[in-house]
Amino acid sequence: MGLGRIILLERIRSLGSIRRAAASIRMSYRRAWELVESMNGQSASPLVVAATGGRGGGGASLTEAGDEAVTIFRRMDLEFMRFAEREGGRLRAFSKG
Known about the structure:
The protein is mainly alpha-helical.
């Protein structure tokens, strides 16, 4: 699970559609659908559920597992940034500049 997939999940959550989420990040619908299928297939439970289009329109939303995956990734990302900032300062002590 990388940043690109997390951004796609976040956009699906906020826009309610795989197609709109893909367009918002300049990704083809096909590629977005492939990523969703890949994430769902690799997860113990689906991260995204999609409703078929038609007269009432389709849509997509994150499952509880999808919401949790986004939350965990964002928490890890924040912790990593804090770690990198702290340890990067220690490494700079070894540079000449």
